[in-house]
Amino acid sequence: MSYNSINNLANVYNFYMTTYAPKSSTPYDSHKKSELRGVYNSIVKLNKESPLYIVDNSKASREFAVSVKENARELRNTIASLGGLDEEELLNKKVAYSSNPDIAKADFIGSVKEDEELPTYNIEVNRLASSQVNSGNYLADNAPVALAPDTYSFDVGIDDLNYEFQFSIRPNDTHRDVEERLARLITNANIGITASVVSEEDNTSYLRLESNSTGLKDDRSYIYRISDHRTSKMSGTVDYFGLDHVTKMPSNASYTVNGEEHTSTSNRFTLDHTYEIELTGVSSEEGETASIGLKTDVESLTENVNTLVRGFNSFLRAVAEYTDNQPKSNRLFNEMSSVAKVFAHDLTSLGLNLNLDGTLEVDDDTLRQSAMSDDAAETFSPLKSFTNAVLRKSNQVSLDPMNYVNNVIVAYKNPGKNFASPYITSAYSGMMFNSYC
Q1: What is this structure's pTM?
Q2: What is the CA angle 399-404-408, rounded to 5?
Q3: How far is Cα 63 from Cα 85, in angstroms, rounded to an integer?
Q4: pLDDT at 17 over 90
Q5: Pairing with 117, which of 5, 88, 412, 431 sits 20 to 30 Å away (CA)?
Q6: Do residues 97 and 277 make contact, with C-beta atoms less than 8 angstroms apart?
Q7: Angle between helices 423-433 and 59-80 (to 10 degrees)
């Protein structure tokens, strides 16, 4: 029972997170034991001092709570990606360049010692890795399904696993009804296949299935297979809807690095534990390459600052979207924008101008001149202080998003004479789980 409850809660949270919050996953989402211990101690202290309140358990509040927490996490990860969470390392991350982004893009993921020079790589792309696509039979949207009403099933084999899908066909179901039902069933199963219904101008449609992964592993000729020859319920839907009709075979990426040939099942891969490469296109002619290397310190710094500003502005805009139905979102917006106001004068001198709506705008010329000054380390000290302040605020919001959800305070705790309770953190998960059961 407990296991099922945990699974249900995970499903609910994943729904809200993927619908109303950023979908990124980064190495900064993993933590050391000491970091987790620090989070735990912060939660205990928070629960000990927080008053008791009644939470607004509406759907809008649930969406807002998840969005606030995940956008705060996204902002924290953006800051962490700029060199680390230590003040000395902030904004010091080296940035990679690609001379031909239409062929390949690059991110620097390694480390480099002072005065160390890393080699440049030339990449030529012969073929991109592709996914598997199945396209079903063209069927008239409003025509009734010519299969007997019953419970049907089919099997999908993917990555050495076999999944059985069961669904019902009702007496009055049309082709479109069943296609949309199957598309939702397959996509929501999260097995690595996305299904959709493609409409044509002549009022016909077909099911389109595409694998989320690319390339071929272990000398296979497919990523997934669909059949209903040995399924547990009624068969016949695979042939009727054409679910097993492969219209695009998967393939591996083919490319050369400094003239040496390589293949990959994905268009993203690491190069010499130093760069993360994303292949974006095929070389238009033989010998056309993309040179991958590191930008200069000035270029890296300006790129890091622009990334920071984009992350800060993105957080503010995400919070501003809830102004109409979440009154406390204004408080969060003002608290975060006030951080920039405190440093406004120093930021302006560096080329970061504060707009009337609280967002920041980068003057690239002024920023570059500041980065090229002889005392650049001292000049950018206020920017690091600003970044640290934003980081502290994002950690606070991520730890207690319920602080910005509508609530009614019931009682304040007696200062200095109270005990830690799990009320605050359970309210965050409970507000979603309670109405789901």
Answers
A1: 0.69
A2: 115
A3: 29
A4: no
A5: 88
A6: no
A7: 120
